[in-house]
Amino acid sequence: MRGQFITFEGGEGAGKSTQIKRLAERLKADGYDVLITREPGGTTGAEAVRHVVLSGAAQQFGADMEAVLFAAARADNVEELIKPALEEGTIVLCDRFMDSSRVYQGVSGGVDKEFLLTMERAVTEGARPDLTFIFDLPPEVGLARAADVWADDGPDRFEQDDLKLHEARRQGFLEIAEEEPDRCIVIDASQSLAKVSRALDTAIDAYFKNVKPKAKPKSKSRAKR
Ligand code: Z5A
Predict the structure, then answer these.
(1) What is residue 149's predicted lDDT score, i.e. its pLDDT?
(2) Peptide bond into 40 cis (omega under 30)
(3) Whose CA is nearest to atom 39 of ligand 1?
(4) Is the beta carbon of 8 within 6 A of some atom in ligand 1?
(5) DSSP letters of 78-111?
(6) Of the residues 70, 96, 120, 161, which should be mutated to test ligand 1's pocket, given the most ligand atoms within 8 Å of the CB?
(7) For ligand 1, atom 26, which residue shows the shortest CA distance?
(8) What's the CA gap between 126 and 43, in Å, rounded?
(9) How far apart are CA 212 and CA 193, in angstroms?
């Protein structure tokens, strides 16, 4: 019995990580087996790639190279963590996934769409998201939130981009939601924490009414990041 693969997408500071942690606790309390992962990252190899891309060390090699690195990290995360968990019937909550490549490398990075989709198909075979939440909010609101939690090293490679690029990414995510309405649900992430939590819970409850037989509740639970 395959689990459920749920991804969370959107701009910086949208509240994805906060909501993933909260939702995981809720689902575990409901008896589901839950795995949290993130992109780039999740596995030792992918976390090493994360450091390379987010530090800006790969920027000098161009957007195509960065796209390849994100795809390589994704391949490792999919093979090592996501697919095995789905095969066990686990609900996998992933902080960013393929839509971030479509938007950051495609829409704002100018990487060829066909090139990106070819890598996407190769890497996500057997691990396509069942459901994707797009956390939508004005980029300046998200960046202000993110700035509050930046460590001493300040903004990462992508947070430093100019506001126009952040706005283009926001539109890019909304276009994906429009193109794939069966997979994507847009959440108004500019609302208060309590309202965003409620919107997410309502959407999950509605979704689980239909797919519940696939995500079998288990007595044991685990979360990994
Ligand atoms: N990237 C890429 O280019 N291509 C790819 O294929 C992939 C990724 C997979 C990963 O960064 C970067 O890699 C990302 C895209 C690129 N760009 N950047 N930067 P990351 O994982 O480090 O960063 P992020 O995903 O943008 O995470 P984030 O900035 O931490 O945002 P978040 O997870 O959505 O937000 P949060 O950490 O839950 O919340 C941020 C703060 O806001 C925190 O203090 C919360 O308490 C607060 N918060 C949360 N919700 C609310 C509400 N509703 N109201 C008020 N305050 C709130």
Answers:
(1) 80
(2) yes
(3) 15
(4) no
(5) IIIIIHHHHHTTPEEEEES-HHHIIIIIIITT--
(6) 96
(7) 12
(8) 18
(9) 26
- The encoded tokens of residue 202 equal 């309502």
pLDDT of residue 103: 98
Q: What is the pLDDT of residues 182-219, one digit of tens each?
A: 999 999 999 999 999 999 999 999 999 988 645 555 55
pTM value?
A: 0.94
Contacts by residues 43-46 (CB-CB < 8 Å, ≥ 24 positions apart): 43/76, 43/77, 43/80, 43/81, 45/73, 45/76, 45/80, 46/72, 46/73, 46/74, 46/76, 46/77
Residue range 155-183, pLDDT digits in tens: 887 888 889 999 999 999 999 999 999 99
Distance of CA 89 to the CA centre of its chain: 20
Is residue 12 within 6 Å of ligand 1 at its C-beta?
Answer: yes
